[in-house]
Design brief:
Length: 399
């Protein structure tokens, strides 16, 4: 991973204006923020900068207004939640550039915070328009990117500003990049990856990249059915992308060539209908799935074998659940493996990095999210990193 500047590299910033890109794309219900995780992630950077006497201008997007103003997507709606999250009064500025922002900077005292309007109200944001970026940069002295979740987008406030002002990674971005480097950049071997979820098609590039990077690839969820079908297993009425069995075999061959062991379930939990605790529930060998049954989770024997694999590994990257975890009892494999990975992490024998919405929900459901070495709240950016792609917002921070 290329070296990047952090807040440790800042000199005296008293009275200087920091343009800080964060993620305020928050879940809302009836005009209220329902989850402040992203505010809490940005708080340490904002408070460190205000503590050093900087004037902090917060930049963020909200929703997909496609270059038009929309009252339902104004960042004015989250200012109260930001104030609560950082424990400081916050000014709202209905622009991102120009005279209105310049006047706000004049009113702010060192250590004050303002949230600027939704950057996506301007078409120049998603186009990464250099003139738009320059107009924003005109009111700032330096730029801090603390939004890893938007780092896979080359937009004016995620990439353009880093080319115009001295650029630094915020504390949340720094923690994310250091954790990801430990997971796949320069990991302690052996490395395992757990990849689950419904469809192979959504994670083809992830799987292709991982087989050349990891020692053990554990495949679960609906996508495991496609790999089982590729190996000639009759998966009954299970969710399965039969048109991708050829691709699955190519991935298995690539894994073989790279010396990566692919783990597919050999016992499974099946039912004739997808419902909580169905009457037709049973556990069987993968070769015994009936034509009217669907695979809904990995079986206990496979989980035990996978636990033994994790005990031999030093690093784990996890994206996606092992079964239909939202419905009991099809959460059993995900919960059991999550608890094993958490226990190994707590003992200090395993570095565990997990990411993606379903994965975070599954680890919270298992009650072990706090015991993993690092959990990324980024969705698309985390997947693109797992695909081995360069993220423009990160590349722009390189020294």
């Amino acid at each position: 991973m290329p070296a990047f500047r952090t807040l440790d590299d800042l000199g005296d910033v008293t009275g200087k204006v920091a343009l800080v890109r964060v993620d305020l794309n928050l879940p809302m219900r009836d005009g209220e923020v329902t989850d402040d995780t992203r505010i809490r992630a940005a708080a340490p950077t904002i408070l460190e900068l205000t503590g050093k006497g900087a004037k902090v201008l917060v930049l963020a997007h909200f929703g997909r207004p496609k270059g038009d103003r929309s009252s339902t997507m104004s960042l004015s709606m989250v200012v109260g939640a930001v104030q609560d999250g950082i424990g400081k009064e916050v000014m709202f500025v209905p622009e991102v550039a120009g005279e209105v922002v310049a006047q706000a900077v004049g009113i702010l005292r060192p250590g004050d915070v303002a949230v600027l309007e939704n950057t996506r109200f301007w078409k120049g944001e998603e186009k990464n328009d250099p003139d738009f970026a320059a107009a924003i940069a005109a009111n700032g002295d330096f730029y801090v990117n603390d939004a890893f979740s938007a780092a896979h987008r080359a937009h004016a406030t995620t990439e353009g500003l880093a080319r115009l002002l001295p650029a630094y990674a915020g504390r949340s971005m720094q923690a994310e990049l250091e954790a990801l480097d430990k997971a796949l950049g320069s990991p302690e071997k052996p490395v395992a990856a757990i990849v689950g979820g419904a469809k192979v098609s959504s994670k083809l590039d992830v799987l292709r990249h991982l087989v050349s990077q990891v020692d053990h690839l554990i495949i679960g969820g609906g996508m495991a059915n496609t790999f089982l079908a590729a190996k000639g297993v009759d998966v009954g009425t299970s969710l399965c992308e039969h048109d991708l069995t050829g691709t699955a075999n190519e991935i298995l061959a690539a894994a073989d060539a790279s010396g990566c062991t692919v783990h597919l379930p050999y016992d499974v939990v099946v039912a004739k209908e997808f419902a909580a605790n169905p009457a037709s529930l049973r556990t069987c060998n993968v070769h015994e799935v009936a034509s009217d049954e669907m695979i809904l989770d990995v079986g206990p024997q496979a989980v035990e074998a996978l636990a033994d694999v994790l005990k031999t590994c030093r690093t784990l990257v996890w994206n996606g659940p092992m079964g239909a975890f939202e419905t009991e009892p099809f959460d059993a494999a995900t919960v059991a493996l999550a608890r094993i990975a958490a226990a190994l992490s707590k003992e200090g024998t395993l570095i565990s990095v997990a990411g993606g919405g379903d994965t975070v929900a599954a680890l919270n459901h298992a009650g072990v999210a706090g015991d993993f070495s690092y959990i990324s709240t980024a969705g698309g950016a985390f997947l693109e990193w797992m695909e081995g792609r360069e993220l423009p917002g990160v590349a722009a921070l390189a020294k």
